[in-house]
Each structure stands twice: as C-alpha cells, then as structure tokens.
Amino acid sequence: MSRLKNKNILVAVTAGIAAYKVAILVRLLVKQEAQVKVIMTPDARSFVTPLTLSTLSKNSVEWKFFSDNGDWNNHVEFALWADYMIIAPCTANTLSAMANGTCNNLVLATYLSAKCPVIIAPAMDLDMYQHPTTKSNLEILEKNNVHIIPSESGELASGLVGEGRMAEPEHIVDFLDKLIEKDLPLFGKHVLISAGPTYENIDPVRFIGNYSSGKMGYSLAEASYLLGAKVTLVSGPSAEKVSHKEITVQKITSAQDMYTAMHNNFLEADITIMAAAVADYRPKEIAEQKIKKDDDTMIIELVKNPDILKSLGEIKTPDQILVGFALETNNEIAFAEKKLKKKNLDFIVLNSMRDKEAGFQKDTNKITILDRNGEQKSFETKSKKEVAFDILSYLITQKLS
Ligand code: CTP
Predict the structure, then answer these.
(1) 313: Cβ below 6 Å to ligand 1?
(2) Which domains does the chain have, with CATH numbers?
C-alpha cells in the first residue's frame, strides 16, 4: 500500500515536448493505487494522445469546455474532485497565463477553481527558463501557494544542454508523496516499534524461542509510515519484510540485544510500541561447543531477561507515549490492567488466547485497548494490517488530538 492510495490526482497536461513523459507519470500514480483523471490543453494532444492517457488513467480525458455530444465539461467539478492537481509539463505559456489569471482553456479554468494543492513541473528551453519574465511568473505562483518542482538539468528538445527539462516522473511522484506526508496525522512523529520473537542461545546451534511471526509489529511499522511517521523497527528473527524502504530496521536476536536497541532509540521516540514476544528467561550459560546427548536428561538453568517495556516505562517523559501488548489466557482484563500500571504504560493492547482469531502466526487479531485512565475499547476480529491502523488511530484520537 502507498500513501497515494485512493487519493484523487488530477493531471493537467500542457503543450510541451515533455508531455510524452506524462504517460509514465500516470502509470506510476495508478500503480500506487491513486485515482487519476487527466485534462489537457487542446495543443497538448499533438504531443501525447488522449487515448494513451485515458487508457492508462482508466478515465476519459477532457480538453474542451464542451464534449462533442454537447455535454459541459465542468472545470469546477474536476477542481472539487481533486485532492491534488499536477500540471505537467507546465509550459512558459501556461505559467504566464496562471500568473495572470488568464482563463481561456480547460486547464486554466480548472486551476483557477482549484482549492486543493496545485503542483507544477515547468518544462521549457534553457533561455526561456532563465528569462526574467519566467522567473517573476514563478515567484507570483509561489506567492499564490503553487508548489513548484524545479526543472532539471540535461539535454533539451532544442539540442541545448541546461536547466529546463521537466522533472522525471519518479521525482514528481516523490514530490507528491512528501506533500501528502505533511498532511498526515503522524507527520513529524518518530514511532519506535519492536517485533517478532527473541532467540536465547543454548549452544552454537540451539536456542529457546517462541512462535511469534512478527506480523503485528511489521503491520504497525507499515501503518505508522503510511500515517506519516518516521519509523524505526527493532525486529527479532522474522520472515516478514518491511513494506517501505523508508522504515529503518534494526535486526537483533536476543532479549538483551533488543533491550540495547530499544534504549538506543527510545529518547528520540514520540511513540513506542512493544509488540515483540520477548523471551522472559535465557540460559545462564551459553555452551561454547555443541552440547552432546551423553545424558538421558538435561537441565538448563535459566535466568530472567530484563523487562524491556518496564525499563522504558521507568524513564519515559510525560510527552512520550508508551504502548505494550498483553497476551493472556484467563482474567484477561485484570491482568492487562495490572501490567499497564506496573510498567507505567499509556496504553496496553490485549489479545486473549481464548480468541481463536488472535495470537502467534495468525493473520488476524482481536484486540481490546486499555488506557491509563481506565477507558477500554474492544475491536472486531480484523487482519493484523487493519488492527495496526485501529491501534494507531486510537492513539491519535486519544492522545495526539
Ligand atoms: N515485554 C518486555 N520485556 C520482557 C517481557 C515482555 O518488554 N522481558 C513486553 C512485551 O513486548 C509486551 C509486554 O511486555 O509488550 C507484555 O508481555 P507479557 O509476556 O504478556 O507480560 P509479562 O510482563 O512478561 O508477564 P507474564 O509473562 O507474567 O504474563
């Protein structure tokens, strides 16, 4: 899933040679599950066909105020539909018209009606881009809160080399992603998450572990990223992969490694969620060589691991939000409340082993969230990905709003 999913993106194409790249831009946006509509200036059709763009965007493409059958192509409706409008390429002519409020084609009329953020990707020849008039037009648009993706340097259609090329479609999508990020509820927040099991070594080839898959923690990392946060994931051994390269992953093995990694990141974190299934005990000694099966019985002495969550609760500041998980088999609410208090948490997410849909290795979960004010909310059985959004949305409304 991407941050562009279900966003309505209106792409407006004007008559520059770079218009051929808009086909790639539309494809990239659709691939990220955005809803895309395309409008054009009449001359832009000489550079890229409406048929190409309607096929790629899965929507009809308009360039006139009236369709051939006499229907009115309402520019206001396009403008109201759009969450973001991208004018690419934006020629010197369109730039000037936008700066002066000219309204003689569908793209300009839609721009004037748009209440959503408008992004332009200027494209023109080197000298046109440097011309003082172009520069002052760009300044006017910047003052009018238009987001400008600067032209890039390279070979131009004229054969000259320099600034003026339309930003590459990938860069336009990145720019849009960063703009969307700023409107997301966790923008500017750092979320630290632990996931998966820990393995406690017995000898070089054996360990004590548990069946945690890491799915809940990885889903929380993805959801935090999609809600705008900077995310650090401290993961025990898990087959899960992070969904977005922007999520920082620190792989660890044992509870003691996890303790160190969580403490190293904790001071920076606004929200910390311990979703890991930490081994409570580890072998007192780790044999240097593989243990041989000489005896009929074997006793391994175990010592207690540090309680990572409790240690974080002891140093947390009032601004930091600390969340734990509780997996219980009986007296669920009472045990969860006790853990919430003992570990100084803001929230605890309770799973009951009595729910068949919850627990290790499952794709679904059924949770109840308890908070330090004694409030609790139960959720239906959902996929772990949906549960992750439920948890974060609950934290946002209860604590951040
Ligand atoms: N946890 C932790 N460090 C540990 C054990 C648990 O940080 N050594 C965290 C888990 O990540 C989880 C929460 O504490 O968020 C609750 O874990 P759980 O095992 O259910 O509770 P315990 O405190 O270990 O209590 P008990 O096993 O007795 O139920």
Answers:
(1) no
(2) 8-183 (3.40.50.1950), 190-398 (3.40.50.10300)
